[in-house]
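Researcher: Structure for this, please.
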Amino acid sequence: MRTVTATGAACVAAVLIAVSPVAAQEAPAPLVPSADASHVLPASPTPPAPSGSAAPAAMDAAAAMPAAPEPAAGGHVESASPAFDPIGADIRARLLSGKPKEEEAADWQALVDLYERRKDDAFWVAPTGYNKRAQALVAELLKAADWGLSPADFVPPAIGNEGGPELKRDVRIEAELGFGLAVLKYVRYARGGRIPMPPKQLSSYIDRFPQYKDPQQLLIELASAGDAAAALRSVHPQHAGFERLRQTYLALVGGARATPEIVIIPDGPRLVPGQKHTQIPLLRKRLAVAAPADADETLYDPTLADAVKRFQSEKGTRADGIVGNSTRAALNNVEQPSPDRLLANMEAWRWMPDDLGRLYVWVNIPEFMVRVVKDGAVIHEERVITGEVSKQTPVFDDAIETIWFHPRWNVPMSIKVRELYPSMARGGGAIQRQGLKVSYNGREINPSGVSWGSVDIRNYEIYQPPGPSNVLGQVKFTFPNKHGVYMHDTTSKGLFNEASRPFSHGCMRVRDPLRLAEVLLREDQGWDRARIDAIVGAAPVETPVEVKTRIPVHVTYFTEAIGDDGKESIFRDVYGHEQRIKLALAGKWSQIDVGPDHLAPVKFQRLPEYEMAGDPISFLFGGFGGPDPGPQGGSTKQAKKGKSQGGSLMDLFGGF
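Model: Predicted structure, token format:
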């Protein structure tokens, strides 16, 4: 990375050095916004007149005339170029006749509109070199590495002839066009444009896109800015989380950040508070807990026990202070500082909305945590369970619309087709045994009266009514989205004690959802807990509560975060998204495992008739993650094994 950065810096520095001092005194004509910002030039510009006609003479005469001065910011009128030469017409013609890449199309059109507004006067180049505006921006492009970008990606043409004659017209055209494209490319990259289509290039589970700034608006701002370099810097994400990662990155690559010592606690017996052991000093060193003065450092004292409990709680495990195999493994799982990981997380920030909201819900998948943030401060946080690796929780933004108490569960299409249908088509009774209901065209029907082997299960609505055994528990939070995921309660609380919690079908299970509902409804409508308890304690009837104010939900994927106190937190790359981003930034697109499109329509395939016979109980559990009993039914041993693996909806489907 440093080699590339140094090369890029040298290239841009060459451009800066080549700028003529005469150009530095030239006052650029400001850009005046058009009354119609949506104006688009015709696809075919008027072609230049053939050589030798009367038109060139007329054009030369017009070029010799100074351009009409335009008002600058604050009403001040600046002089136009000393010798107005409408090179913008040539640039517009080239852009309109070319074929940009999809991500460059808006940049090209913005430049076309720029020169049309300026009556084709130059914006970056004076007769003898780059103007003041361009010089300031060249210096800023040189600092691209400070933002995790490479200066080599934004090298404008090198021009300038100190003390010499004016630049040739074709040189000025190339410089004007090249400089504009370099600046606008920098703006795109600052907003995540190095990976223009994350859902297609990385994974369909990453439903985020670069937060591009309107290039036309950017040019307007640069024209009126007193400090063009500051205006360009402001394009980068302004979130505190991004800036803390950036400062950590700069300290790491600049050598200002020391590599921490890795303390490994070897295998050994369980360490229990109150005992003495030779490994206790290592444990103290790992957790930075010094022994009291004149005390035995091999004694596992209460202060050290509290530190171990805090560590265990942070890792999502039982906070009992006992250092067994799992706690040892967590203590020894120390991530090394990584510039690439920091850059990948900075890139993920470039896809985040500028405005997260005054009050919002933040789910970080690798951390398995949900937080409610108000005015920049966390007012509530809780553990969550997210999707399995094969059924991932998607990364996206939405807004909560409804909080449902005593929710009913509508069986998703994928579960109906892939997990319910095989059992039902073979004569199983999964629907009846699990208390599911079936409706067809809005009318409830008896599932035992349906010949499932000859119908398409996608045409039937299958759901679980509210009640104590409902897999969604007592409450769910919906923010309708194309992924069909939401947050909800669960009847399986034990899994929240696991450090890594990718166990669901894609939805986010919340350990204490009633507390989350209390916090949100208090902020939204002034509810107290008693009002929620009254609904929950009543008969199990689905009760929706519409959210009155917009509460954004940001489902994120950050494997590294820097706290307000500077503490670095690193989380396991559970879905591999960090690795995908790193490969993309390195240009290794062919090595990225994009995986299947999780939004592709669910395919329905009717089972062959010979597979529809056999013992229904055996087939039931064979179809839900237990052993496949085969076309003639399974053994008693297989059936028991399947039953132990799938005795409830939560076990059968792995949660939701």
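Researcher: Any notable elements?
Model: The CA atoms of residues 34 and 117 lie 7 Å apart. The two ends are 42 Å apart (CA to CA).
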